[in-house]
Amino acid sequence: MFYYVKGTVAHVAPFLAVIDCGGVGYACRTTNTTLSRLEKGAPATLYTHLNVREDAMELYGFYSENELNCFRMLIGVSGVGPKAALSILSATTPEGLAMSIITGDEKSLTVAQGIGKKIAQRIILELKDKLAKGQLAASGETYGGTGVTVIPENKSSEAAAALAVLGYSQNEIAAALKGLDMEQLKLEEIVKHALKKMVK
Fold first, then answer.
1. Domain Helix-hairpin-helix DNA-binding motif class: where (predicted)?
2. Residues paired with 21 in a beta bridge
3. Mean pLDDT of 136-161
4. Which residues pair with 50 in a beta bridge?
């Protein structure tokens, strides 16, 4: 319903930013990361997600589309609600979340308030599985002429999966990974170099 809200920051509070758009204040639940980018009285654009429940409609807003994409992926995990997703994205960046999922680093997720080991493991398991399926569909590679698509277990595919978490398209990812030394660079370094190329 809302792609973004653009206006003036009217009020900030823990996990909340109110954006004045033409005299209407939109209350956007958000992360500490987004709040750190906002200044009361300054212009701002927040990319939004409208969460509709039986008893309420809540608007969530984020400074970047990467953060919004990660929020939507997180709330798609069984047992992870908007509050837990905000907690995770307040404790780590979208890039950090992507690396945690790809490398299976559950400890980095349990740093977030209210996130225990079981939820962290579920997030990694479900999102890694979704990423794998996404990579399969995009690669179009088949094994032995059987029509069964497979993903090579290497740093290139893992880096591509990490970038996919952030919402980049397959074409963007391919262009960003082109020319990088997959043999010498660590996975984290490959992702960082690719991100630098994409934000130029």
1. 72-91, 107-126
2. 24
3. 52
4. 59
Domain 4-63: give its CATH architecture. Answer: Beta Barrel (2.40)
How far apart (Å, rounded) are the C-alpha atoms in residues 64 and 155? Answer: 26
Q: Please tell me whether residue 27 adopts helix, strand or coil conformation.
A: strand
Altogether, the residues listed in the chain come to a count of 200
CA gap 98, 162 in Å, rounded: 5
| Both structure tokens of 31 | 């992360």
Number of H helices, E strands in the chain: 9, 7
CA distance 95 to 86: 15
The neighbour count for residue 109, using CB atoms within 10 Å, is: 24
Question: How far apart are the C-alpha atoms of 37 and 54, rounded to whole Å?
Answer: 32
SS3 139: helix
Q: What is the CA radius of gyration of the chain?
A: 18
In the chain, what are the domain boundaries?
4-63, 67-199
The structure's pTM equals: 0.77
- H helix or E strand, kind and range, residue 15: none
pLDDT for the residue 116: 94
The SS3 of residue 6 is strand
In CATH terms, is domain 67-199 a member of 3.30.300.180? no
